[in-house]
């Protein structure tokens, strides 16, 4: 959970800097990609926890 929150914080920070600073649009793009990767990571991790082993 710490990794998720850290990546989310970095993504938001890069997005804000990229949107506010002139000529640093690539930081906004990196922030968006990082945010999407973070959402995919937490989705896969959550889906893995929902699977249950069959009772033998």
TrEMBL record:
The lineage of its organism: Bacteria, Bacillati, Actinomycetota, Actinomycetes, Kitasatosporales. The keyword Transmembrane helix applies. The keyword Membrane applies. This is DUF1328 domain-containing protein. The chain crosses the membrane at residues 29-47. It comes from Streptomyces plumbiresistens. Keywords: Membrane, Transmembrane, Transmembrane helix.
């Amino acid at each position: 959970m710490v990794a998720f929150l850290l990546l989310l914080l970095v993504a938001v920070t890069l997005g804000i800097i990229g949107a506010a600073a002139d000529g640093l649009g690539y930081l906004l793009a990196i922030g968006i990609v990082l945010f999407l990767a973070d959402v995919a990571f937490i989705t896969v991790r959550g889906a893995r926890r929902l699977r249950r082993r069959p009772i033998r």
